[in-house]
Amino acid sequence: MPKRDDIRTVLIIGSGPIIIGQACEFDYSGTQACKALRELGYRIVLVNSNPATIMTDPEMADVTYIEPLNVDTLEKIIARERPDALLPNLGGQSALNLSSDLARQGILEKYGVQVIGVNLDAIERGEDRIEFKKEMDRLGIEMPRSTAVYTVEDAERIAAELGYPVVIRPAYTMGGTGGGMVYNLEELRIIAARGIAASRIGQILVEECVIGWEELELEVVRDADNKLITVCFIENVDPMGVHTGDSFCTAPMLTVPEELQQRLQRAAYAIVESIGVIGGTNVQFGHDPETDRVVVIEINPRTSRSSALASKATGFPIALVSARLAGGLTLKDMAYWRDGTLDRYTPSGDYVVVKFARWAFEKFRGVEDKLGTQMRAVGEVMSLGKTYKEALQKAIRGLETGCMGLGFYKNLHELTLKELMARLAVPTSERQFVLYEALRQGVPVEELHRRTSIHRWFLEQMQELVAREEEILAHRGGELPVELLRLAKGEGFADAYLAQLLGVSEVSIRAQRTRAGIVEGWHAVPVSGVENAAYYYSSYNAPDTVPVSTNPNKVMILGGGPNRIGQGIEFDYCCVHAAFALRDLGCETVMVNCNPETVSTDYDTSDKLYFEPLTVEDVLQIYEKEQPMGVICQFGGQTPLNIARQLEEAGVRILGTPPAVIDMAEDRDLFNAMMEKLGIPMAAGGMATDEAGAIDIAARIGYPLMVRPSYVLGGRGMEIVYDEAMLRDYMAAAVDVTPDRPILIDRYLENAIEAEADAIADGEDAFVPAVMEHIEQAGIHSGDSACVIPPVGIPEHHLETIRTYTRTIAREMGVVGLMNIQYAICDDRVYVLEANPRASRTVPLVSKVCGIPMARIATGIMLGKHLADFDFSAKEIRHVGVKEAVFPFNMFPEVDPVLGPEMRSTGEVLGLDHSYGMAYFKAQDGAGATLPLTGTVLITVAARDRTGQLLEAARRLAGEGFRIVATDGTAAFLQDNGIEATTILKVHEGRPNIVDAVKNGEIQLIINTPSGKLSAYDDSYIRKAAIRHKVAYLTTVRAAAAAAEGIAARQAGESTVRSLQEWLAAVR
Length: 1068
Description:
Elements: E1 9-13, H1 25-39, E2 43-48, E3 63-66, H2 71-81, E4 85-87, H3 92-104, H4 107-110, E5 114-115, H5 120-127, H6 129-139, E6 146-149, H7 152-162, E7 166-170, E8 180-182, H8 185-198, E9 204-208, E10 214-222, E11 228-236, E12 249-251, H9 258-275, E13 279-287, E14 294-300, H10 305-314, H11 318-326, E15 335-336, E16 340-341, E17 352-358, E18 379-385, H12 388-398, H13 417-422, H14 431-440, H15 445-452, H16 456-473, H17 482-490, H18 495-502, H19 506-515, E19 521-526, E20 534-539, E21 554-558, H20 569-584, E22 588-593, E23 608-611, H21 616-626, E24 630-632, H22 638-649, E25 654-655, H23 659-666, H24 668-678, E26 685-688, H25 691-701, E27 705-709, E28 719-721, H26 724-733, E29 743-747, E30 753-762, E31 766-777, E32 787-789, H27 796-813, E33 816-826, E34 829-836, H28 843-850, H29 854-862, E35 880-886, E36 907-913, H30 916-926, E37 936-941, H31 948-959, E38 963-966, H32 968-976, E39 982-983, H33 994-999, E40 1005-1009, H34 1012-1028, E41 1032-1034, H35 1037-1052, H36 1060-1065
Parallel strand pairs: 1-2, 1-4, 2-3, 4-5, 21-22, 21-24, 22-23, 24-25, 37-38, 37-40, 38-39, 40-41
Antiparallel strand pairs: 6-9, 7-8, 7-9, 10-11, 10-13, 11-12, 12-17, 13-14, 15-16, 17-18, 19-20, 26-29, 27-28, 27-29, 30-31, 30-33, 31-32, 32-35, 33-34, 35-36
């Protein structure tokens, strides 16, 4: 079937910022959609609020809008661009919901926009719990017994009829947001209310509990000819009760009989045909192994997290194919490497895929490590092997959690059997590691199956790994017999883990293995839907089948591994641009990564993709096979940097900044000495490996202190320490502290303005595209602080000092590539806080706001170009860009949502406009924290925050028509300075109080700053109430001032809707 000729311009809506449940898999799907539809000749208009994505680069679509994803903004864009069609199902739940809103409000009809890919009725039948149940009843497909309701009272009634426990599933949400398992009436009232608030239509499903059943998924694709194919069968190892985003899973299904798989496929086809989706759909089933009962749980009539996994697991690019199908092609119009055309596709492959999630519980103090029906993972890895055991162990070492195998995780091996079994009471992020140690202590498989409902086969496989490990441990202190080494490698035991078990060096294991000829062989995953494409994985269980080129201009790029807080999509962005730049320079590119959600692991981003863990063992063998001219380590975040030194020692040529320079930036003594030599001020500091050393440093430089581990991203483990007791507690809790990885201790500069500069350096000079001013004060992690480009509150002489310091430091260190330096301005003096001679998370932001492709330019420089080869003439940026962070506090309601030195945001948005105020307002809007234009403001701040800046913000808000209420101390301060404020009670002072006012909808904006440990404890209920009741809140005075300016700008007029291409065209 030819492409549709009744449409010319297609609107694609992205998924917005990275959040739990909706991550960078939608950058991957959106990027594929843009490529596919442009290849078909359509003009593409893309709308997304996330600047860190490849899809929002100005080259990816014909017209790109980085704007808040809401109905008002979309209507303005539709009016400007007049698209003929809207493709709603490649931007996650955000795009699907927004598309439904545009239709319901008559905007699509008003402008003559037709929906392609999935019709709006299909969205309603798939997402609305009542409509979906009606459709399943019509088809005769069983669902868990359930009823959709709109009130807590009705939920109570249905739960009583079904019997506890029950599951709450909100409609039109992703990642299980707002839902959960409830075991009693009290829990029901809390979670039902939360779910109703989370649902776009205020609807929840109260569902029979099928916890412990097998959870099975099918990825199905349908075309306009009603041809249906199953791309992938996915088996969740964790049973029902754990969200699929958190569940450890395999493809293909390993324990499910063929007859049951066929039954699931017939049901899935009937559902997808009935719903009427064109493109990909994920269908989730529950299966009771005791009774053989099958129920459908839900469908996602869009690309999803599972479809990204299925795409990478099978080589079937679902988003690419879905976009082509939306453009009018059918499956028979696309190539299939095995049987000619895609309408003949069937899943195949002689390998096993394992997906394992990555969590960030350590970032959220007070949160319980417990998995349920609401997703909590922030990332994932995917591994491929010839056997399940091999794939499982590759996934574990790809997680980068400090464990290279399943055993001896943290202190689990020291626990008693009773303590281990107690930890299996509920699913947690550590459950697989607990099971491993329980098996080591002799717990029967049947007992573990009874406690966890995990299929016996998976537990038996783990038991065999434990038995092999015990064989290995018998040789501790010596060398493994070659045959035992061969068996261990075939079962996935990593070199580093074997070294740990035997008490020897990884180098010695590698040497013995290589001498014995025990090396990885590589194998292809052919790509469907395109001609002659594949990517590759390794196995110790089969000989190498992958040829290599002898191209001398070959470069390897090391990716960032699994997403996590502190290391996310921004680093994948840099890796992808490196691949694009190298291709333009005529080089062959080799990408190594294990993250299935990313654009870097798309089949055509690089010339060759190895889907492998980023460990010395795996990377070194690829290097030895491919023989590239060098390896780029500085774009993938801390992941490749952590192994760069070992790679270099093994003979790998590292392109760009040498690992020794990166190490010097982490060595506080060496770095301080360099700063002293250059005459550049730094906050006083030092390094400590024990408590006594830390106390000595504190005595020398004074409190408060900023303390953190070395060689980490995202402020991992970073804290502000106010006294010796806190310092002793910190050092006592610090783990993995060695002379090579000490604790860094600096004097904390209070009330300082923080700024940072990204630079491109060629070893002799550096260019600074922009200085970013943080809106929050120093002490808030740079990843969590809002920031503005160009700066609005830093005097020009300080900006010039920052640019000069940056160039001077880059020259002195000999940086080749990218660099980021963070500064604090305190008492009218600029201090260096830290220097990172690598890519930073701000590279995509600076690149888009300034129109300078930093990663591409840096790649050229790493290959020998100089800054003089590029045009860096001074240009004036005539717009303002404000980045705002997005947090997962709604997923962790027990956590105090206050900002600090450890990063906790999962993503970011960008607001672009002519003025700082309007750009800030748009950034808040994009982040889902829309500032009110009228109403009441609650101000309650710590004594040290009762400053002139607070008074200025309060006066401005009062002048904008807001009524101000404040707690006793803050109200007195405001009143003493001529600002009218009504006193409101704190919770412990009586009723009605702050929480009552929030619950009653009487407060529209909260400004609340904690002060030290006591206030953070006392006041956390205010911030938690704001999250729970969706009230905009600010936790710093500088943010309050920015909000006042943003509100004033928005009250003065509408925001500007302009494409990124238009903004950048005005940069001269």
